[in-house]
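Journal club prep, notes for RB
We'll compare a predicted complex against what the paper describes. Inputs for the iron/sulfur cluster case:
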Amino acid sequence: MYQPESGPSDTVDVGTKLRVILAAPRGFCAGVVRAISIVEQAIERFGAPVYVRHEIVHNKHVVQQLRDKGAIFVDHLSDVPDGVTTVFSAHGVPRSVVSEAKHRELPVIDATCPLVTKVHVQGRRYGKAGRELLLIGHRGHAEVEGTMGQVDGPIHLVQSVEDVAALDLPNDLPLAYITQTTLSVDDTRGIIAALRARFTDLKGPDVSEICYATQNRQTAARDLAEVSDLLIVVGSATSSNSSRLREIGEEMGVPSYLIDDGSDFDPAWLAGVGTVGITAGASAPDELVDSVIAAIAKIAPVEVSQLDGVVETLEFSMPPQLRNRAASSVHRSTPA
Ligand code: SF4
């Protein structure tokens, strides 16, 4: 059991033992583990600096750790000097970026998550079959920009059920939808139902094909919120899947906060709380969850346990340029 290190708080009785329950699974998914390993191994093998287009994953701690090792993050390829090893982020890139890199003969290592690539392939397949595309996702997200630029022909972004009614398309047009991977089956269900209700010739992938990690973390967050008085989600504000975990807690009537690490924890949140649930987005390392537990333990003694959940074993292979390397030091799996 953690013991408090500081004196009494105005808001919490330090004599009261707090229950802290961790979600399972939480934190790093296979795509994030792979993307971080790619940057680390690229620096090891080709030397620093290695340029990374866009934040490799949406977590400020992960990005800073990689910066310290020799990664330079840029928003545009024009910021990459000629001849320098360049990594594309886990979110994927539009084809125009791939062409630009080829044109400049940049040595590129693609860290696009294989599940994102799968969405690109699905989109192209539907396009080839003569279907106009609908992408269910959030405007401005790096993955959405990448996916919209990976398909041929027209593609329409659908962010909500209201957007479905507003689509300026004939109801009998051959259409197909694809989805942003950080939306779960539950997130997309309403939009897909609205699309099916309106369009008579609509195809789409089996919903079970949407990213396993997103679905598992959302299911675990829901289970956790059911037994918690307060839900803490560890992740950066730029992380779409982390924000969604916080929204799930809020939808279930549990005060829910998204924080980067323990230093963001506000002791006032503990007023009247007996059980704190903690989970983490797919781009947040488990050491940040530990920092939140430590921050709480400074206020009151805590007893930590973990809910039962799905055990994830999926691993993605490394890109050809980095094959035959030992497993990366960042590869941490969430204990189940
Ligand atoms: S959340 Fe899913 S799609 Fe995104 S990087 Fe992780 S495994 Fe890949």
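Talking point for the session: The longest strand covers residues 275-280.
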